Amino acid sequence: MKYQYLILSALLFLACTANAQTVVKGTVFELGKNNKVSDVFVRDNQNRQMTLTDSKGNFSIRTETGHTLVFSAPGYVSDTLYVTDFTNKKIELVTQTIALRQVNISAKREAFDAHKEYPEVYTRSKVYPLSPTSWFSKEAKDARRLKKYFKHEEEERHVDEVFTMNYVQSIIPLRGQELENFMTIYRPSYAFIKNNNGPSLAVYINDSYKKYQALPADKRTLPALKE
């Protein structure tokens, strides 16, 4: 009986160890810097697991060897990790300029619908008065963070669709890097885009251009990206 108990204990230990090894942990940094990036969306393309990095850039996600993890965040070029082991990972994201973002935007592309792609996030994010787990469990808290992230992404995509490089340069004479700098400095908020029509946006761009011209030369440029 004691022998059988030892075998059972060993099997349980191995099962727990194997289960623990299906979690990959790591930290996301900005490439070339020690800046840790929070709210990076991490997803497993195979098992549909997802998470966000915390305020210190740390993440933890359930995955398997042979799976691909995708890391994406506003202002950064998306990166992928092919899982070969379960050691701690250091992910470095490249900052993304407006010019790169413009290439990724297409009026014909079907908009990302988080409700359709990840309905489980919205289910888990619901709060029920008589269910403490819906308030305090890590799963529920993570789901609410993801829901907030999806909402922000949707709003930023809408701004990108309206505040385009072609539209802005049709109103003001800036081109090239100067245009990119202007669009970064005076990028309108989602609330503004939502509550104003085309003519109002054109007025905003013209007024912003006058402010841009009044800026000292060193205030019109953005910090250079590190290679």
Chain-wise SSE layout:
Blueprint: H1 2-20, E1 23-30, E2 41-44, E3 50-52, E4 58-62, E5 68-72, E6 79-82, E7 89-93, H2 98-104, H3 114-117, H4 119-124, H5 132-136, H6 138-162, H7 165-169, H8 176-185, H9 190-195, H10 198-214
Parallel strand pairs: 1-7
Antiparallel strand pairs: 1-4, 2-3, 2-5, 5-6
Offer a concise description of the structure.
46% of the residues lie in helices and 15% in strands.
Any descriptors?
single chain; 227 residues; alpha+beta; 4-stranded antiparallel sheet; 3-stranded mixed sheet; 7 strands; disordered N terminus; signal
Give the low-confidence spans: 2-20, 103-110
Strand order, main sheet: write it out.
3-2-5-6
Order of helices and strands: HEEEEEEEHHHHHHHHH
Q: Based on DSSP secondary structure assignment, what is the total number of beta strands? A: 7
Mean pLDDT: 81
Q: Report the β-strand fraction as a percent range.
A: 5-15%
Fraction of residues in helix: 40-55%
Task: Using the alpha-carbon principal axes, give the shape.
Answer: globular
What's the total helix number? 10
